[in-house]
User: Fold these one by one.
Assistant:
Number 1:
Amino acid sequence: CVLCGRTDDCPEKYGEKRTYVEYNLTVHYYCLLMSSGIWQRGEEDEGVDGFLIADIRKEINRAAKLTCNICKKKGASIGCVAPKCKRSYHFPCGLQRECIFQFMEDFRSYCWEHRPVQKFTDEELGASQCTICLDLVEHLPVYTVLRSPCCKNAWFHRECLQYQALSAGIFFFRCTVCNNKDKFQKEMLRMGIHIPERDASWELEENAYQDLLHCYQHCDVKRCLCKKGRDYNEPDSKWEIKRCQYCGSRGTHLACSCMKSWEQNWECMECRSIFAKSGKYSKQKKRSLAASEKTNGTTCLLEEPPPKSPRQSSGSPRSFLLQSSKMMCQNLSPCSPLELPASNRVSMPLSPVMSNRNWSLRYKHLRERRREVCNILKELKVQVKKKPTRLNINAENIWSSALKGFRQRIFSPTNTIEVNFSNCKNRSKTNTSAASKHHFFQSLMLHLQNSSLFEGSSGKNLSLDFQAVKENLYFEAGKMIAVSLVHGGPSPGFFSKTLFDCLVYGPENAKPALEDVADVDVAQTIKTIKYANSLSSLQSTLEDCCEFLAAAGCLRPVTALCDKKMLVNDILIYHVIKRIALPLESFRQGLKTLGVLEKMQMHPDVFSSILCHKPETLSAETVCDLFTIHSSSHVSRGADFWMGYLQDVESGESVVTLEDILLFVTGSCYIPSIGFDPEPTITFSRIRYPIGNRLLNCLELPITKTYQQFKNKMEFTIRNTLRLERE
């Protein structure tokens, strides 16, 4: 290794050892990552993971002048970050001397004297088992022992914990006792445990969980009535096998246990006897059949069954998640006809009997929920510190420069974000005002909406882009959305109901619809299966698309027309949810930034109002309510002029728009989900022309004798100010 001088190839200790023949360069990844005088100035595919070769050469020359305080040899590229500490050392030497290297944020290093330590009380001293290797571990404040921050009785050997982190990766590394993830990872990173940003090793094994896909399919009742045998299973008929609701390892045909529908629960004899002995078992009453389920002596199971409801017992705490998409839209949030959930915006026509009063009420409820979101986001913003982080954004390539900025070492979502726009052609730069930040977040959300990470026309779901998975772009997209919400950017407003349910309730509780399928060919195939009117046409369609069904794991023999319903449902679940399992998990992890996902799961109804609905269209009433008018002797007539002017602008009787007015005062042409800070105000004073103070979000208006004078001054100032800014 050109930095530490060792030939050891031990990825667990020193990271991957990489050799670049064209550059005559061999380096340990951790040695490069922790070096004090080098930064990732290139893209991920440039040099060595973003470290430019020229920078590496400079770092080698810099380190060659420094002597390691441990082995006394030259080439010590790592220095302790503690103030006034001048110790330098090689990465392997630092490990031997029990230095701590933090694989996060600025990638800091601490020598053996200044390293962070965990605080123990005298009562905690003693010994217990390491919860990973189960060997004895002494409760001592030493380098080799670590304690869980969330569990008093969880103690680990540092070496055991490091191997566990390398195996589990960032998605699955958590406390082995209580399963806490966020608090546990934060403490372990502080104490020098490296948690790689990749999936768990066991998730990367091919067919590792093949045995778990096997479902028990056997009728175990004493007298089986099925002529085709105990192993015969025909879905959506009386010969469908129902498994025991408790153990799942015993089964029965519906007809063999006199069950009328799948919704009824069934227990095997073993489980029933256990519950009987414990006194907790009570025989369930049979559900009375509706008139539509009864025919002349023939049960409904002999007919083509109705569409199956989700396989969940009645009274389940999550049964409300599994309603139809139309019902979910009605229960999600009352909304205006222009602000229906994105996934249902086209498929739900406006009812002609719906009165204006009802739409007004729905609109009012939606605004109330958005106000709740505003308060929740303000709680999250408490984490943001005044320390600034500047993003240098290329106006011609927002996405690449944003991605580079979010991935830089010094970037922290808890710092105040400042945006500096530049243009590649003339290198002209703008200031880092609030207007730049608002414009950046608005452009970023628009790019995400139209990017290859999402698919669909209006209500969008995640797409499957293997290159994006490889580059961890789904995580970055989730992180950007979370940061935008907390830092005053716009809400996405393009999530489909299915995507929102997957994020909030988990993919197992989401119910995709045909509208969620963006691929035209796949959607046409599903429609052909769904609307097949005969068994022969259904079988013919399945033969034509057998390769697609096999890839989706849905290829099966079809013996009845009613089989198509479950088949369509399985295809939808595979294509919309299971197919994008890895991007979804990565996207969820990104949304956890600043605690946004946790708040989404706590307040799903209010967050759906900004994630599944387009932002509120500005109106005169909205803008009027946004501003607080400071009282003065001239406020009465001035306020009348102001409200009259807003109405003229809304009706199109002005050369400016409501967005122009908002941009003139605040630097933003939209109302952020978190609201404005400080809140916009209006004052009236004896000035010639209106003044917009974007630092204070204050609009200073002139006092005029007539409304026409007021209107002329407003239009002249706003139009020319914005025109000059654009130029």
Number 2:
Amino acid sequence: MLKLVEKLDVKKDWSDHALWWEKKKTWLLKTHWTLDKYGIQADARLLFTPQHKLLRLQLPNMKHMRVKVNFSDRVFKAVSDICKTFNIRHPEELSLLRKPRDPKKKKKKLEEAEEETLELEGPLLTPGSGSIYSSPGLYSKTMTPTYDSRDGSPLSPTSAWFGDSPLSEGNPSILAVSQPITSPDIVVKMYKPQSLLDKAKINQGWLDSSRSLMEQDVKENEVLLLRFKYHSFFDLNPKYDAIRVNQLYEQAKWAILLEEIECTEEEMMMFAALQYHINKLSIMSSDNHMNNSEKEIDEVDAALSDLEITLEGGKTSNTLGDITSIPELADYVKVFKPKKLTLKGYKQYWCTFKDITISCYKSREEAHGTPAHQMNLRGCEVTPDVNISGQKFNIKLLIPVADGMNEIWLRCDTEKQYAQWMAACRLASKGKTMADSSYNLEVQNILSFLKMQHMNPDPQIIEPITTDINPECLVSPRYLKKYKNKQPGFVRDLISARILEAHQNVAQMSLIEAKMRFIQAWQSLPEFGITHFLAKFQGGKKDELIGITYNRLIRMDAGTGDAIKTWRFSNMKQWNVNWEIKMVTVEFADEPSLAFICAEVDCKVVHEFIGGYIFLSTRAKDQNESLDEEMFYKLTSDGKSSTDGRRETNAEHTVKELKDPCSVQVKRRTKKKIPFLATGGPGDYATFICLS
């Protein structure tokens, strides 16, 4: 490379340039190696090119930014650097996604909607000097508040807010402040998945985190989507995470508007009211912040800490109660077991909920005898079916059995009863009892979620219907189509009135609290956090869906989306991938193993989702917040992904650990035993990398 630069005789900084081997899709980054060691011969075509190139990123708020990204770094590292630029903590939750192609659009028009592109040559211009871009408290354990916990605005001037990042000179509000949708046409032009199969096709576009952008044929100036990939949001704190909270809110908002996730009409009006409230407060806060440098930030801390605990699944100090006994529920509940060709006929039972088991008795007096039905809820699917105006409070349970799932419906009479039983069912599905400290908090969250959906019986609407509501920008097209036979003006006024009615339930919330409530409500939807992939299961005749969430795998019907069978990660022993036939096999402690072939998607994407969620489950607040990249790669890599295309580095790392001799059976075409050296005692797990 030195001789090449001397021959070119052009005076410039060449330090960012490296050699790229197109045929093998490999960066030649080990400059102490010879070309011969890389296996390069005289006819090889090498490209001498900068490692940092411009990328057009579409953020969760649908705004586009041009960022310089290292095309030789693994995607996991590149995303981590991007998040440092944007002051987003926990970058392991995000990744890059290719833009889905709308099958209705035959030709690619010029990207009209992308005129708002902010050029941002971030920390990635100078490799290795990332420290100046880490903003105050970003990865330290003794963090100081960076944002106002009421409206999410910076507590200090923008230069301190973004450190030396060019964002301090640009317009930071594009990231931390929600910008209202200005025209219904924006929503109409967006690609909307019409079915579960369409959603599965979008998920084919996730980039491989273990390989670089160049290795995955990403071109300079290409548009990629930066999205929250894993729906497990750790330590979400408004004091340090205004940008992260806003981008999460934006991703949730667009998921609801583009019908990527199902919700009821009452829930849609609640989301629209929160959105309207957030839009109003965002405009007010951006106007007022310049005049208001000091604000009281402690008055909502207590409420926000509860919200924070909810979103991170932590524990509260005031809900411990009596830890010597496990609480129980006992009440009359209507129960229904669907059978073929039967109408929904609920039968009332005296039901007791102890530990993780529901027992049903014909009457209260028989509660000391043998129950008529008994259900163990460990590993079950819990789905709400609620209609506030119709006073319908149903809980759908899919309970795992040997040959699939048993469907049971519970009907409660009141909101309070529903909240208690729903919270208990959710905990029981995870193997937890009502003694868990999160039970009371879960009950309160369900009650507050229901309260936000109440329509105010008082006909007096606080504010007149104004033109700034624009309901077409607040509700999804499906709910507008319901009134397609009505006059457009009438529909607009009707929906606006319903939004204002729902707004009275949230009108007192601060800006950041409203965003947190929106995220929390999004997390409460039955379909939240399920990533779908098309798959063919062993023994199955047709294509079905595999759904992956933060704690389980779900086999689903491709047409209806109904769960056929569920497997919890907590019950999983190991999973393996056969890369040749694209088959994923998962073994469980006390269940038959699961095997499926990935259809239309690289099984590496599915493998990475499973490994990624397991990696995220190891995070703890008392840990140092630096990321264990190597652990992530061990759990998600296919063993051949590396920036130089060789496996030798991993092999060397493994060899250092090897001490005691043992023999290992290698499962391949031949069952020949090969002698290995391995650490640990009998029964311990070890990872082996075969060099030949």
Number 3:
Amino acid sequence: MTTIRQRRVGKGTEAAEDQPSEETNVKPDGKILPDPPGGKLWNILSIIVGGIVAISLGLLTSVYVATLHENDLWFSNIKEVEREISFRTECGLYYSYYKQMIQAASIQQGLHGLVYDNKTESVRTINILERMNVYQEVFLSILYRILPIQQYLEPVYFYIYTLFGLQAVYVIALFVTSWLLSGTWLSGLLAACWYITNRVDTTRVEFTIPLRENWALPFFAVQIAAITYLLRTHLQPAQERLTLMAVFIATFLFSLTWQFNQFMMLIQALALFILDCLDMLPTAKVTWLYIIQISGLLLVCVLQFFNSMILGSLLISFNVSVLIARTIQKNLKKGGLLNRLGKLILHVLLVLCLTLLINKFIKKILNLESDEHIFKFLKAKFGFGATRDFDANLYLCEEAFGLLPLNTFSRLSSTLLFYVYGFVLFLLTVAAVIVAFRNLSGSNQVSFKEKKEEYTVTLKPDAAYSLVHTVLFGCLALSTMRMKYLWTSHMCVFASFGLCSTEVWKLILKCLHLYTSQRTQVIKYSIPIITLLYISFKFWPGIMDELSELREFYDPDTVELMNWIKSNTPNTAVFAGSMQLLAGVKLCTGRTLTNHPHYEDKNLRERTKQIYQIYAKRSPGDVHGILRSFGTDYVILEDSICYERRHSRGCRLRDLLDVANGHIMDGLGENEPDLKPSSYPRFCEEIKKNLPSYTMHFTRVFQNKTFHIYKLAKHK
């Protein structure tokens, strides 16, 4: 089991700081007033300074997480096999394709090996580029081969430094988004500082480097920054076209690098849909964003050899349904309050029905079942009936897919982030309700516009989008802990924007009858600066201590296992075992696997459930027959799974298998009435007794404190 031990010694001018809000620069006839000469010079200087601060903070964050990774593992000093073992579970699987491309005789042979892969799933040839989002590994490996850096930089360092470099892009994008929303780069500085000081809850890149989200989230942040700029008013046509291009590129790269892209963008599409229905965003721009999402996803679909899971995504069905429904209901935004509410209800129902019909039709045509486990999981998670489905329960029992722990909020509150976020969220939600009500009930168009102007100062389109975005992704994070990183990073942006926003403080002071322009400006800058000083004094010593703490990677049992496999088994040997361990086996030894952690395939899920019968109550003959049907030569048993104590009764892997097989679970506790005792003992326990009924099928060839390897007899 892997442990860590103590190391032994041996963008545009509209966002410039101090720029007046967009409304104050516009004449009543819609023309933009020119900036005074002194103000223009100050804006340019502010942009330069803010840009330098943003880039500096991004680079510092990159160096910070890289140093933490080195200090935690002593990565520069450990052996190559230990470095590879440190890429745990699916991280190791993804990195193995980068290693495979690097070691291939040529780029063409490397690509051929990925398109016609017969080592990731035994007795099957699969297209890795279709099944998995590994184009980033392909691109990096090609880049490494053609650049003259092989003598100076090892492949593994080129890989991890690229990921750490993307953290710089991530922080810069968050910085720019907050700057665009508030109009001052001080807001971006605060957002970046909050991101760094809340690192435990905003990123996990330093210990899960190859994880798909670490590739994708920086591009998602860039996309949000571009959307924020796009939603500003009075953009020139050229600016709008360039921004739409930036949104498309960021959307495409985000979609290309993460298999869960469609679900994240579906939430984004829902945010756009809500705001469009409430007349809080320009319809034309929303339409472009729908089209960009569809086109970006379809381009990825082509690159992934027409991956059916993408074609059958809810995102494509939803966006197409919205566009169809909009053409059917052309007068959606006309009429009084009750009239518009009735139209909106019909519109929502029409979109919902069309989405379900289109999605069901596509899945029926394509015979698509790749994502059914996700919907089974969601159904069970939200209480729509209990399930004995093995795949759904596998997710339900993982902490990462559970509710967000309450201690998350105490950590976020210690930096003042959560307090400020809650304060800004409340204010802008109230403002949004007022604006939405006025938009829907404005029968007198002239007075509506006059009154609306008073409120849109505090809720411009970009701020409205940011509000709904953070609410929806907050709901996702609360329901599924693994998705908190999508919320907490934007939380930093949203809170810092609110604290540095002229409109927010103007609204507060007007409500308190204390408003003056000078007082607003003083508060707008003084409170963020005080917050930054508090964060610096409180957390700087802890960051320094963290950077000075030196540890060392230590996992001798897994190292011994991998070395034995490489030295004592043929290159063509097929290994069965847990998904997480087999990813490491492929990376460290290059042997063929029966199953792996990339779970987005129905056949693989069924195969994994069969392989896992090694931890169920089955006869040795049954287990041998199952394993041999997948071409297995060796099976690896792990004591940490066979005698698992990490999960409570009912969530241990052996319990999930027992319930799925209709058997009573081990230990004290209740069982469902229709479960029955098994006729056989637990395989992983009984095989260690070397009984004749087991030794005729399995021969132990390796063991240590954690792992046991058995060679399968070849008889039929």
Number 4:
Amino acid sequence: MEISSKENTHFFSKNTILPVDQSSFKSESSASKERQSCCGGIKIFVGALSFVYFAKALAGSYLKSTITQIERRFDIPSSLVGVIDGSFEIGNLLIIILVSYFGAKLHRPRIIGAGCLIMSAGTFLIAMPQFFMGRYRYERFQSAINSTVSISPCLPDKSQTPLSVLEKSQGKINAGCEKEAGSSMWIYVLLGNLLRGIGETPIQPLGITYIDDYAIGENAALYIGCVQTVAIIGPIFGFLLGSLCAKLYVDIGFVDLESITITHKDVQWVGAWWLGYLIAGVISILAGIPFWFLPKQLAKPEGRKDSNTSSEQSKFITEDNKEQHKSYQQQVKIAEMAKGKDFLPSLKNLFGNPVYLLYLCASIIQFNSLIGMVTYKPKYIEQQYGQTSSKTNFVIGLINIPAVAFGIFSGGLIMKKFRIDVLGAAKLSLGSSFFGYLLLLSLFAMGCENSDVAGLTVSYHGTKKTTDYEQALFSECNSGCLCSTNDWDPICGENGVTYISACLAGCQASNSSGENTVFFNCSCVGTLNSSSQSSSAVVGPCQKGNNCPKMFLYFLVISVITSYTLSVGGTPGYILLLRCINPHLKSFALGIYTLAIRVLAGIPAPVYFGVAIDTTCLKWGSKRCGGRGACRLYDSSSLRYMYLGLTLVLGTVSIFFSVAVLWVLRKSSSPPDETLSANGERGACGTKSRRENFVSSDHLIQTTYWPERETRL
């Protein structure tokens, strides 16, 4: 009624000569106040939404940084970690349709606030197993844990071990089995990540449409660009937080840190992975608070009140004197949607568009490549180059992610600066993928050789291993020792060879305790180093070769350039998607695109990448109650070829589909087909007819949503 009274006042003033009085002055002042309150309200919403984007991006990237920590803490293989990582997409898909359809009709800010609470609850649930599953137990020789009892690592028989020590150790194992037999605590991590996906669902669709509905037309793109920019900053802080927590021991605050005999450089080290989730959960709660106090609707700007093309929602807004006709049209439209009369023809029309179909296939395969590569990139750096989890996360957060952000910005800038048409966008997207994967090919030559591990990568005589490792773990030098092949307590001999345990190294004595433990009279060390009479070893594996630090530096340089190159093609590819579909199918096409990426890439890629990585394991850990645990040692060469090879094969296949997209576009840009594309029958886009449309709406470059682009490294 307030808007209609203003319109009547304006209409009356145009047709009647009246002196300027206080009433007209008051109406102008009230209009200016309304404009100021509208601008102030939308700016508050943009600031709050930016903080929410930061919070969800931080939590998502922090999960990526803790993949190896979770794997070691729960003693699970990489394939199972992939299932946990993909559960976020499953949660998102469960309610995306309900939220997208019914959310716009309800109180959007409060729904976003409720989503933040659910997201924080899921984040807290991920950290909960730390408080219920007991303290972390790593494999370590008894004398290294308790210096008051002197035990020889090489035990000819059990009589050499004090009975009290054996009973105590066996009692701990039985107690641990009783505690672990009833539950698998990693399920809580999976459910928490699933809950995170449910809570994150309303943020993007409802938040962006709210800005688009109530922001001034020329400011909408700027506001959405600010939100997306802040979202890219989130992963930087997420990986840096992961780097900080990885340096802290997992049970910090619960145990005496002086009693810990391993450091953050040890392969058995597990950082305080749970601490970052508590921090991320608190940030999510704080981010959701402002939305409970924001209004359901804001006053529309003057330029948007009578607009019919400002947004999809405004297309169905009619004048106030046609309110009954409006509600009737909406009821008819909802009834038609419920019957599904338009769904199948729209779907057929969409998939009958060759450009859309080919680009969808190319995107699905490329995102399979990128998601798998990003998920296991921390593990690859740790295992291939012998880096700690802390340093790995620091490097990714401080170097790789800024390169991705700069690449996305550069792609949009190139499109706007040179006013590239649809055909040029296809070429730019194809060139970005081609050169990016070409650079990735060079990483095959930038790997480290396997560490010398007696019985696994080399024999006890110094030659390369040729027999099965279970049999090769025993040799003449340790045949008199009672050793277990399930133990993983590596020591470094003075000959530069790593031994799985002090017992398998044939060590007869030790002194000191903790990380300063030194083993003496190791018969297997003396086999390879006959000139030395001491045959000693220290706790922890030996460092990788001298060339490995140099290779790691080369890897970082190429990785940053590759990340930037691949990211440049993100925005042009998305513009290609928007320009080559019929306007009335745009929302439907984007929904199908996002759904396909999540279902066919976001969920399966981490799983089969994890399965492939598990095939390169040389030494599996064992759980306290039996059964296979997490992998302790990977074959560096096999891991490199499997990880990079799978990424490159998928990327190459996506390039072939991109070439097909370019071929169809070239064919459709010919004169005979240009008329068909103008009528909208084919759905393919002509470059000449689309160029002006692109220039007139180039603000879409800033508003495009590349699924999970803030974590694509």
